[in-house]
């Protein structure tokens, strides 16, 4: 199988969660827009192609299937790339965790775009400062504390063994380190399991090779995880939700 | 199978998407918190129960499985309740559409809570007015226009036949009618397929009986879909995304 991944050029974005799974598994795939340009996405987004119309990228073509939504793509790829344990219960748990990662990713996006996703950050900076403060103080401790417990229960893995969820948790932690270095420095002592998982994923041969390649774009302020120093900051002791 | 649904009392919320599937199929289920109180959710949310820990309600117990995230629950229930067409492609497309519905539901939630989900609406009303204006003017036309095309292609159904996605689209339209009546009145002429689907779902015998029962709570300002008159309003002609 040769997969075709459709995602915007110039940023990691939500496409990166799919890319990491394809790279880790050594799957054959084409990152279509990096070859043909972003215009290659339009016929799908405008509903001019057969099959399920994607609302937004990323989407994946596999034979005659067109599959959108990151968690759905990974749910599809998981068994094919040997990136999810066998059995329905494990697949459901993987999907549940991936959807919870997706919820946090949306909250991270909205921390720099709390008012209108199509408008400039600079035009919603005041609201962004407020939302980012809530993200740092309440939401990150709550979500990351949850994932830390999941990984502790899984013996260092989200699902007891390597899976696409581990790859996505790696990306989540790396993205937050880029966007919110000060907040993550404060939280890290409470996240030993996630930090160990991050290090182990980075050392996987295919991931290490990918991270060292030009295919891995640097994080930047076009993506989901954006570093604006005025949004970062310390976390005070009492988060109320991190215990 | 007797299912146990866990969701907060006093509001429809995200639990309603699951409830509609269980009711439509005539499944046997207990709405646990309505019997035992909201405290019944805590052991699961605090990670003190076996199985996958939910990050948030709703979650469903089915034998020894604990399944969280609405789209994941419906993906699990679909084949069991005969609420999704057969075959992997149809199940993936259903999941994709349900995840896109979930994205809009989150945007609707954030239109009244753009800054901090745990704080009062009244403390973020100014930002809410801005975000709600963007929702009305850009996001609703874009999302609902997408679903309208999906339903048109499906011959009146999201998936070509009745499914849990139709039930969720019904709930989405009803919720938006409650929260944003003026905006929805302006958009409705462009949504004949969704309006026909809504009417057809409401007439399904089990759904009609459910809607007439005390189990169907009225929409209120504790839920996802909230009516605050100051957030509603007209949609100007050029949405830029509705074509």
TrEMBL record, chains A, B:
Keywords: Transferase. Residues 87-231 form the GST C-terminal domain. It holds the Pfam family GST_C_3. SUPFAM superfamilies: GST C-terminal domain-like, Thioredoxin-like. The keyword Transferase applies. The keyword Transferase applies. GO terms for biological process: glutathione metabolic process. PROSITE patterns: GST_CTER. Transmembrane segments: none annotated. GO terms for molecular function: glutathione transferase activity. It comes from the Bacteria. This is Glutathione S-transferase.
